[in-house]
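Technical note accompanying the year-one report. For the benefit of new consortium partners, we illustrate the data format agreed upon in the data management plan: each record pairs a sequence with a structure-token string. No post-processing was applied to the example shown here.
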Amino acid sequence: MLPYLARRLLLAVPLILGIIAFNFFLLQLAPGDLADVLASEQGGAAADAGYVAELRKAFGLDLPVLTQLGVYLKNVLTLDFGFSHRYGVPVASLITERLGGTLLLALTSLVLAVVIGTALGLLASRRPGGVVDSLVSVLSTIAYSAPLFWVGLMLVVLFGVHLQWLPTGGFQEVTQVPLRGLVLWGDRLRHLVLPATTLALFFVAIYARMTRASMIEAMSQDYIRTARAKGLSEGRIALRHGFRNALLPLVTMVGLQAGSLLGGSVVVETVFAWPGMGRLAFEAVSNRDLNLLLSIMLLSSFVVVAVNLTVDLLYAWLDPRIAVSA
């Protein structure tokens, strides 16, 4: 296990460097840069070619592309992610400030999606073609096809405007007396319900359908018939023998979609004014803040590599037939 882990970590280094280079060149293809944005906002004489050239020189945007890439790689290796000229603070400070909100939203959504989706898939797999199976299939199709922004807006209209049960946006209530302790966390949980539910619904549909298909396949295997011949109860057979083997495709899908949580959170954080990295990435794209956007994409790639490595290690624990070797 340790040699395998060491090899995977070593292979991750050139992979991360390749992702950095690809993202850097990809962003260079986008029209305009930070100097154009700042000059256009000031307007008038400030938008002339001379002023734009001075801005590009000040930000290092006049250097050759390969030189800019080399400077950025050197800074990243020293854990220097640059300076956000748009916000006037280091990029690391911005990411640290917003990372907690995104992790809270993404992890909550992931847990909700896995628990609810798995439970619905187990219920649907008990009697394929039955009433419960048909109902789960219809609801999964609706949840999968509905756009995230539309789902978020409908939840806001229903629970925030008409029923007024939950807040419609933000991270916590703005009050004259700062909230502390359990009151603060209770308020944040109330603000978390709608965005987490919106982001989780799409993944609930995927996990429900995948769990259903995996359980139906697992329950038709020879070892299930052997377990029944031994006289084991159906509940124990389903949970101890069928469900554990049916988890492998689900774990794979969770690993593959972990990185897409950030992409989905861009829409959700914008709809609910949630202060997270998804909304920060959207603002970085609008402002042509290259250093900030590259750092967010770099962090996302780290998350994807780490989650996929964890998934590979979980295979051996879930299914002893899978051997991990170096």
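Partners are asked to follow this layout when depositing records. The CA atoms of residues 35 and 52 lie 6 Å apart.
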